[in-house]
Amino acid sequence: xxxxxxxxxxGFSGLTKWFGSxxxxxxxxxxxxxxxxxxxxxxxxxTLLDDAVTLLQSPLLxxxxxxxxxxxxxxxxxxxxxxxxxxxxLGQIVDVCEERxxxxxxxxxxxxxxxxxxxxxxxxxxxxxxxxxxxxxxxxAGHPYRSVPExxxxxxxxxxxxxxxxxxxxFLRVLKAYVIYITEVQHLRYRELGERFGYNEFVxxxxxxxxxxxxx
Length: 216
Hints:
Elements: H1 11-19, H2 29-42, H3 45-56, H4 62-73, H5 86-104, H6 119-131, H7 133-141, H8 151-162, H9 164-177, E1 181-183, H10 184-197, E2 210-212
Parallel strand pairs: 1-2
């Protein structure tokens, strides 16, 4: 299955939505990953594996990975209370995805995703993050119950040094997790970026993206 056929958010960004679901507390973190990897006969597993390997091999600090995860899920950043650090967590995700894919492909070998970075797309995503930077910082670092520090710098580094595609998807997840409003013009630009990244037409809007009508 091509990722354009996946009509909900996919990969690592899509996984964060599973953890933000009302029923997530009924399962262990690893059980949720297993369910995600098994969704639609493992349609999720390849993109989740690619994103996890990309982050695992990236120059991001473990703290930055933790920050991005917490902000996308909408949970308080409390390092002393985490069940596992970000890179160990990514390693567990990789193991689950490999095992699930091997059930369908007996000769599956893990290869790191080819680095693809269109400078124009990278700059476009970075511009969108920076446009909302003040509101992002207020909503995340200033949240009374789910505070996460330094979200904007972590997103900027992900976009510029690792993968603008994953950076854009995690940016959208943070907007949805913290109910940050955007204008109709911004919404149109996000949908155009989604098309350029090859997303299904429903991925950008999937979830709780809040658009202010006639606010431009």
